[in-house]
């Protein structure tokens, strides 16, 4: 029995005690196999004294990793019956080629173990999918304060897992989940009027979509960016972003997203004064609706027919003219009917309020102040508003303060009521979905 001076020199060069070396080998074995071998200083001592010359494969791999060598030979390790350190090979000793083959085989085995490592499972991914689907659906109708903590918690867990190791298909899956969760966070920020935070979140959505080449997620991100630009008053940018969503890359994918993007583009063009372009794009949006497939996610990530008719009403109202105003009233009334007829869980308070505001604006354009007041009463009954509804209400107040409504008592009363509800202290405490 000959001492393994090579291994001893490797340890001493690193100024490790035998206990410290054993601890490092234990940690390496546990990281690669999940087992706790409970090795100690005595085991290292037996290696250095030559009592053990060829530990098991997992231990040899751990020793090579800890001492940062390519093979066991560099640590003075050898199988029983082969050449001992400084000695002559026995007749039974394998040739150098055989030992090299064994080393190569072990390298492949180590690669297989490394490739098999993952910190997620199919059940974990399935649960994330279920959580995202539920949150997207609940986001439309449930109070936001009840959802925000859960969105943040799940998103943090997905980010943590992405920092570890998983199969490529699992990594792709996690990026998609992370993208949708950042989309929910972006909606939260926009609801509360924080456009800067919303922009940061949605840029992360775009990055996640680009990493995995997810068409629907990227197109939805563009639709959200268009929405944010519209409420910032940058109508031309809003139209460009919506157009990019259905034109760039390989298109927006399946589902209702194309109808959503075209509707956003039409609304933005109308607000920017491009009436002809708005009406043309609006027609394309309704054409796209007739060929839509199922959405990957429902709720806030889908584009229900009621919402499309609400967008139609807003677009026609912005185009203006007696004929378009009457069509806007019809479209907005149809949106209200569809929302009220649908399941309560799919009913968006924000969209209903927007449709009522469009009707109120349309009645004002027709000179019917009393009719506008009736529609506004539906909005005044709400306890809270999104940032976009607040903007609409204040724009309507400005319209009521202009000719020919300024001096009418009913207009004065409506302006006062709008001022009251838009300056409530709890205005942003429980917002619903922006539109």
Structure characterization notes:
- The protein is mainly alpha-helical and 435 residues long.
- It is elongated.
- The C terminus is likely disordered.
- Helices cover 67% and strands 0% of the residues.
Secondary-structure blueprint of this entry?
Blueprint lengths: L4 H9 L4 H16 L7 H9 L7 H11 L28 H20 L6 H17 L9 H15 L5 H24 L3 H18 L2 H17 L3 H13 L9 H15 L3 H15 L15 H15 L2 H20 L7 H17 L3 H12 L6 H14 L8 H14 L13
Helix pairs in contact: 2-3, 2-4, 6-8, 7-8, 8-9, 8-10, 9-10, 10-11, 10-12, 11-12, 12-13, 12-14, 13-14, 14-15, 14-16, 15-16, 16-17, 16-18, 17-19, 18-19
| Shape label | elongated
State the helical fraction: 55-70%
- Biggest β-sheet description: none
What is the terminal-to-terminal distance? 81 Å
Q: How much of the sequence is in beta strands? A: under 5%
Compute the average pLDDT: 85
Report the structural category: mainly alpha
Low-confidence stretches: 85-93, 426-435
Secondary-structure element order, as H and E?
A: HHHHHHHHHHHHHHHHHHH
Total number of beta strands: 0
Radius of gyration: 33 Å
């Amino acid at each position: 029995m000959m001492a393994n001076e090579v291994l001893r020199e490797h340890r001493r060069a690193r100024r490790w005690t035998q206990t410290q070396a054993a601890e490092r080998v234990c940690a390496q074995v546990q990281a690669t196999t999940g087992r706790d071998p409970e090795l100690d200083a005595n085991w290292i001592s037996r290696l250095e004294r030559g009592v053990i010359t060829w530990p098991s494969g997992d231990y040899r791999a751990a020793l090579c990793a800890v001492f940062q060598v390519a093979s066991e030979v560099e640590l003075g390790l050898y199988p029983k019956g082969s050449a001992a350190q400084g000695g002559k090979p026995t007749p039974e000793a394998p040739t150098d080629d055989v030992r090299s083959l064994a080393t190569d085989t072990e390298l492949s085995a180590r690669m297989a173990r490394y490739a098999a490592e993952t910190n997620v499972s199919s059940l974990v991914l399935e649960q994330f999918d279920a959580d995202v689907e539920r949150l997207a659906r609940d986001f439309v109708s449930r109070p936001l304060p009840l959802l925000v903590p859960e969105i943040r918690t799940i998103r943090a867990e997905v980010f943590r897992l992405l920092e570890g190791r998983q199969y490529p298909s699992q990594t792709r899956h996690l990026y998609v989940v992370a993208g949708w969760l950042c989309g929910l966070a972006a909606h939260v920020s926009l609801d509360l009027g924080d456009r800067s935070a919303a922009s940061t979140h949605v840029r992360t959505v775009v990055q996640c979509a680009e990493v995995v080449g997810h068409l629907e997620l990227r197109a939805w991100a563009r639709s959200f960016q268009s929405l944010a630009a519209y409420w910032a008053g940058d109508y031309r940018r809003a139209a460009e972003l919506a157009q990019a969503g259905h034109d760039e890359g390989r298109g927006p994918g399946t589902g209702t997203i194309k109808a959503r993007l075209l509707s956003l583009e039409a609304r933005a063009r109308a607000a920017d004064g491009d009436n002809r372009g708005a009406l043309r794009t609006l027609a394309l949006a309704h054409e796209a609706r007739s060929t839509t497939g199922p959405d990957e996610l429902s709720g806030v990530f889908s584009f229900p027919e009621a919402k499309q008719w609400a967008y139609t009403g807003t677009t026609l109202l912005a185009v203006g003219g007696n004929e378009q105003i009457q069509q806007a009233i019809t479209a907005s009334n149809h949106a209200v009917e569809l929302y009220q007829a649908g399941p309560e869980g799919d009913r968006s308070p924000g969209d209903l309020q927007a449709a009522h505001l469009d009707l109120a604006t349309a009645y004002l354009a027709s000179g019917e102040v009393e009719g506008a007041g009736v529609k506004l009463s539906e909005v005044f009954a709400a306890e809270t508003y999104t940032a976009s509804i607040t903007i609409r209400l204040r724009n309507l107040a400005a319209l009521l303060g202009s000719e020919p409504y300024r001096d009418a008592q009913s207009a004065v009363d409506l302006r006062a009521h709008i001022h009251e509800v838009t300056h409530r202290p709890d205005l942003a405490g429980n917002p619903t979905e922006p539109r």
